[in-house]
User: Which sequence fits this backbone?
């Protein structure tokens, strides 16, 4: 089995190196670096045959469709390389399991799509942010700049006029229900191809997500759970349970912004049973990383 790790990051080259060297040696790695950053800074000590820094780089504006674009381009690269299982990570993730345990888990996964999602219609307050239009979200304008304030004012105006997004997306070929999950998943080539094709061909659906709240947690899930691959995915029913419960592989503490993990979080991280944890930052998280490494045995 060809296991591919897809990593998108915008900072902390040292943490990226720690992450890659802690993962199975026979895996392949596809890495997207924010276009605002110096690529050479991240390539240091990572010049190996199984590591590819993809050429299609985007400006990673947090909370915008640009984060989804990076995911799609990573999937496209892994599919071209013939990967059998694609695992999405952020640069701030770190494994809690040993290399062998990670390899064994994915070898036994079969055709299951390791992705969780919950339908947002009927979720009450939890769905409110997803009904807001977020115009010009892909622009990297500072919040207090003139353009940033103009964008905020436009959003307030739409809300004041009671112009909202629906939680069902009407496209010519089908109607999609909005699903939410976490940017933590491991999918098969079948679902990966569908995501890339949908991105390339379904402009109506992509346009919906251009003005959506945190599409990096909804686009992939919406495509997956409205497709023939849905029976292979993990559907979460009932009320919205929080982001960590929707993250099948990665421990996430805090929403919408995960807090930086330190050695004080070791017990909670271990009790999660997850394969990875997020968010590790060089220097701040070095103590926790050392404690994790001491327990990661092959």
Assistant:
């Amino acid at each position: 089995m060809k296991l591919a790790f897809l990593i998108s990051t915008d900072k902390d080259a040292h943490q990226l190196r720690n992450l890659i060297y802690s993962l199975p040696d026979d895996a392949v790695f596809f890495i997207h670096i924010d276009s605002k950053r110096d690529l050479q800074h991240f390539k240091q000590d990572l010049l190996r045959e199984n590591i590819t820094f993809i050429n299609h780089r985007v400006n990673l504006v947090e909370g915008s469709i640009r984060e989804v674009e990076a995911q799609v381009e990573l999937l496209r690269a892994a599919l071209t390389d013939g990967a059998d299982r694609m695992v999405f990570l952020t640069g701030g993730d770190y494994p809690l399991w040993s290399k062998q345990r990670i390899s064994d888990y994915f070898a036994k996964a079969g055709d299951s799509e390791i992705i969780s999602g919950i339908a947002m219609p009927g979720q009450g307050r939890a769905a409110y942010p997803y009904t807001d239009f977020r115009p010009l979200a892909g622009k990297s304008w500072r919040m207090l700049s003139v353009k940033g304030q103009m964008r905020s004012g436009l959003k307030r105006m739409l809300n004041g006029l009671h112009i909202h997004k629906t939680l069902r997306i009407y496209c010519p070929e089908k109607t999609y229900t909005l699903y939410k999950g976490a940017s933590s998943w491991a999918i098969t080539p079948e679902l990966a191809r569908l995501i890339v094709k949908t991105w390339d061909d379904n402009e109506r659906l992509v346009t919906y997500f251009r003005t959506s709240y945190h599409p990096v947690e909804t686009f992939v899930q919406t495509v997956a759970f409205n497709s023939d691959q849905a029976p292979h995915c993990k559907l979460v029913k009932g009320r919205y349970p929080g982001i960590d419960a929707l993250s099948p592989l990665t421990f996430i503490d805090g929403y919408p912004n995960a807090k930086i993990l330190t050695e004080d979080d070791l017990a909670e991280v271990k009790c999660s049973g997850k394969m990875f944890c997020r968010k590790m930052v060089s220097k701040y998280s070095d103590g926790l990383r050392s404690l994790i490494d001491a327990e990661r045995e092959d």
User: Anything to note?
Assistant: The two ends are 19 Å apart (CA to CA). The chain has a mean pLDDT of 92. The first strand starts at residue 3 and ends at 9.
